[in-house]
From TrEMBL:
It is found in: Cell membrane. InterPro entries: EmrE-like, Small_drug/metabolite_transptr, Small_multidrug_res. The chain crosses the membrane at residues 33-50, 57-79, 85-102. This is Guanidinium exporter. It comes from Massilia suwonensis. Belongs to the drug/metabolite transporter (DMT) superfamily. Small multidrug resistance (SMR) (TC 2.A.7.1) family. Gdx/SugE subfamily.
């Protein structure tokens, strides 16, 4: 259950990062509200997951999901640049996440 919560926390992190971008510096009401709610939900799920997952592992995986997820959202929804170097960087992050998960068993 902790790993599921950690994954959900990472997804919430992606949502709040995207909604923060959409808030235009917190000048738009609804995206700003979504950002705040998703931040609280993400931290809540992360804190519960960290009851049984070591800090270093949980935090690394949470931020990794957020980083790769935000990268994908940026490319798919916001038309951000996609090039081999950025793809390689995302792949390396995912490899690091897999290694972190495997090392915590």
């Amino acid at each position: 259950m902790a790993w599921i919560l950690l994954f959900v926390a990472g997804i919430f992190e992606v949502v709040w990062a995207y909604s923060m971008k959409q808030s235009e510096g917190f000048t738009r009401l609804w995206p700003s509200i979504v950002t705040g709610v998703m931040m609280v939900a993400s931290f809540a799920c992360l804190s519960v997951a960290m009851r049984s997952i070591p800090l270093g592992t949980a935090y690394t995986i949470w931020t990794g999901i957020g980083a790769v997820g935000a990268f994908v959202v940026g490319v798919v929804l916001l038309g951000e640049q996609l090039n081999p170097t950025r793809i390689l960087a995302a792949v390396l992050i995912v490899c690091g996440l897999v290694l972190m998960k495997l090392s915590s068993q």
